[in-house]
Amino acid sequence: MDLSLIIPCYNEQDSLPAFLEAVTATYDATGLEYELVFIDDGCTDGTNGILTRFARERGARHVRVVTFSRNFGKESGILAGLEHARGDCIGIIDADLQQRPETLLEMYRILCEHPEYDSVAACQFDRKQGPVRKLFSSAFYGTFNSVSSTQLIPEASDFRVFRRKVAVAILSLPEYYRFSKGIFAWIGFKTYPFPYTPDKRAAGTSKWSFRQLWNYGKEGMLSFSTLPLRISTWIGAISSVIALVYLVIVIYEWAALHNSFAGYPTIVCLILLFGGLILLTLGILGEYLGRVYVQGKNRPIYIASEVITVDDGKETDEG
Ligand code: UDP
Ligand code: MG
Fold first, then answer.
1. Confidence check: pLDDT of 159 > 90
2. Strand ranges of the sheet holding 304-311, from the earlier edge strand across to the other edge
3. Among residues 160, 158, 180, which one has the least CA distance to residue 170?
4. Is the pLDDT of residue 258 over 90?
5. DSSP state of 153
6. How far is 267 from 318, CA to CA, in rounded Å?
7. CA separation, residue 277 to residues 216, 230, 283, 285, 290 (Å)
8. CA distance 38 to 116
9. In this structure, what DSSP letter does residue 87 have?
10. Is pLDDT of 262 > 90?
């Protein structure tokens, strides 16, 4: 098998017909031995019906449909796809036609022509974003890259093609919180940046709200840096020094100048300040502790209720 395409789908019934059309037209013409690995990420619309019909009736030669028992998120979908992909090279593409199948083919060709690269990542160099998103996005990448030893490429996405060894490396990371941008950066490998501009969605709406993006960013930061844990050490050290200096001033004023400070407001301010800081650092500790707890439970990252595989018209099912 030359190439596996992983396609995570969440309620994509409106985009899928056009996507299936485009992907089969593009890849059938190449003579490549390829497979399509669809992840039904707990879809509640007609997506699953479309996918199973496609696999059974007129599908490409090799199709797999992994159906999740509920919505586990795109990152879990990518993981399931990697576990079920059989190709020598593996690509990840969205089902909404924002990422064109032809672009992925071009990226695959680059990978074939350049044995020195192990991965080709589509990079969006001229990202069109509103000013607020742009500000948050550059603040996020700036902070991430300065607090983490893993360096993210802001323009790169999970629209990629890579060799099997890259997939094996990704699968060797057992973490529950899967921040794929960080994982791709962390595993290393020589990556070819391929410039591209995404199209408009074929149909439906993006599943990302601002809050989800915020949480996604937080997840990434906490998964790839332990620096926030050390904030309390620094705050503690700096405030101790300030407190000592302040004490010296108070003693000097009292002994040499016979002034006594009005203590009440100072005490209230300090209690509020330090109460806040202690709670803040406890909260940061809690964020990490919660993740250790979840990871410690060792739950699976997704649960598949059904996997169907169709190879040349022959179907195998795992219930
Ligand atoms: N997706 C998924 N699970 C989710 C949300 C999204 O598998 O919980 C899929 C979705 O069907 C699409 C891809 O991930 O194929 C990208 O999603 P979306 O278009 O909403 O994100 P955007 O393109 O805006 O980043
Ligand atoms: Mg999209």
1. yes
2. 191-195, 119-123, 156-163, 89-92, 3-9, 34-40, 62-68, 304-311, 314-318
3. 180
4. no
5. -
6. 67
7. 25, 13, 10, 12, 20
8. 29
9. S
10. no
pLDDT number for residue 76:
94
pTM of the model: 0.83
Mean pLDDT over 159-188 rounds to 93
Distance 201 CA to ligand 2 centre (A): 6
CB under 5 Å of ion ligand 2: residues: 94, 96, 98
Beta bridge partners of 40: 9, 67
Report residue 57 CA to chain centroid gap.
Answer: 34
Residue with token string 């020598």: 88
Task: Extract the tokens encoding 142.
Answer: 């700036």
Task: Find the 208 Cα to ligand 2 centroid distance in Å.
Answer: 9
Kindly provide the b/e burial profile for residues 12-40, where b requires at least 16 CB atoms within 10 angstroms of the residue's own CB. bbbbbeebbeebbebbeeeeeebbbbbbb
Question: Mean pLDDT for the chain?
Answer: 88
In the structure, which protein residues have their CB atom closer than 6 angstroms to any atom of ligand 1? Answer: 8-10, 12, 41, 71, 73-74, 77, 94-96, 98, 206-208
Instruction: Quote the CA–CA distance of 165 and 184 in Å, as a whole number.
Output: 12
Q: What are the residues facing 3 on neighbouring strands? A: 34, 89
> Which ligand 1 atom minimizes the distance to the CA of 71?
8
List C-alpha distances in Å: 21 to 3, 24, 200.
Answer: 18, 6, 17
